[in-house]
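RECORD TYPE: protein structure
NAME: Amidophosphoribosyltransferase
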Amino acid sequence: MCGIVGVVSQGPVNQLIYDALLLLQHRGQDAAGIATNHGNTFSMYKANGLVRDVFRTRNMRSLPGTAGIGQVRYPTAGSSSEEEAQPFYVNAPFGIILAHNGNLTNWEQLKIEMFKNDRRHVNTDSDSEVLLNVLAHEIQMATTGYSLDPSALFKAVTVLHKRVRGSYAVVAQIAGYGLLAFRDPFGIRPLCIGFNETDKGTEYMVASESVALEGLGFRFLRDVLPGEAIFVDLDGKLYNQQCADNPMLNPCAFEFVYLARPDSIIDGASVYASRLKMGEHLAEKIKRQFSAGDIDVVMPIPDSSRPAAMELALKLNLDYREGFIKNRYIGRTFIMPGQGLRKKSVRQKLNAISSEFKGKSVLLVDDSIVRGTTSREIVQMARDSGAKRVIFASAAPPVMFPNVYGIDMPTRNELIAYGRSEEEVCREITADALVYQDIDALKRSISDVNPALKDFEASCFDGIYVTGDISRDYLDRIEYVRNNPKPVIEDAVRSQLALNLARVD
Ligand SMILES: O=P(O)(O)OC[C@H]1O[C@H](OP(=O)(O)OP(=O)(O)O)[C@H](O)[C@@H]1O
Ligand SMILES: NC(=O)CC[C@H](N)C(=O)O
Ligand SMILES: [Mg+2]
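PREDICTED:
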């Protein structure tokens, strides 16, 4: 997951995009970038770091224009090097800049095909740069002459959907024309659109989450549909078209568990309300497994588990207490790069209030247990603070399968629940008891809030990859690439590329 935003405004957009990125910061902490469109020219600034650290006044001044895009990055492909920060730019046709949330699963093959067939060179290992080049090629193929119209753009997206596999929510600016936004045919990653009426005309903003629209005074219009493309020209006229043959909405369930902000509404379901429901369903399970008197107090692991823990306590008629205080200046640990940093940051981020633990049987609730970094540390902190018994509950089911759609967990061995029974995970995190949400209950938590949502991308829990192209070999290969040092990776990728090249021949 990354955060993306695209704007067509009637005044300067640099500050607007900056503010939107601040509201989307929870989706990516590694790099940030803004590109603006003024006349026929783009200006761009991007670097590694948080939004507040990346942009200085001089950088903001260098971003004039009334339309633009921005991104906060959490890398899933290539590396975290600054060259792979987004947006990406390509000069032909017309001049296009693009920002992407998601992960392509056939980017290596596309990279070769593009070189072989289209003579397009992609300079990084970023799947997003590949995506931009596919888009550019298809726009080139769909246009004749010097001008561009929305139907040509929609034709290009239609072909792109046929070539590209994986997840992609995209915002792109075409120099001198306007903003193109689209979502993959499964609608895996979120994307929504809002508007703002001004004296000079209507402004539009497309963003990963509704919180960006709402926080900046835009009115939520709707979610971008799976497979749909939207184009807003520089005068603020909006066009849209369904560009996929068989679109099927399968939003990522993990957005509702952890990734998105609770004050966002994704595909018609409030993330906050879904998390409350997760707490309610988890409470039902706990009621079946424990007797009254087993638990003295319920505590959340700040921040993301709060709504679930709160509702769970209410439904069990138990005290809800804040036993851990979060240092608000430390970012989200799960999306930090590297296990060493993640582990160190949990201790820096959370501190226990001992008096809340002394002699008590505590039920600690987290939204999820992924690598077990947080839960291991937290259980120990509860014990060190004098807890009599530590029961751990996860508002999501065990995370047992790699994610290939934009969450950086490509290797099975890093997942604490992979190859372990619940009892073994419980021992691993040194808890006295462990309760996981059931997968059906998780899905129901979201469907309860929006009954129109029936199907989900929940591969990390159930191993079902909705795009249908993920084989055991594919998973083995991405795991191999991740587990081996760079020169070995290059060999592996090179030999795979050679293989693909042979196939293309
Ligand atoms: O099992 P793990 O690998 O530790 O991953 C799961 C934990 O990571 C996340 O917290 P994070 O600190 O990222 O953010 P939050 O403050 O939004 O809860 C999530 O909320 C869990 O607490
Ligand atoms: N998490 C994401 O959405 C990542 C986008 C893109 N795959 C990258 O690595 O930069
Ligand atoms: Mg957390």
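COMMENT: The chain has three domains: 3-249, 275-462, 472-504.
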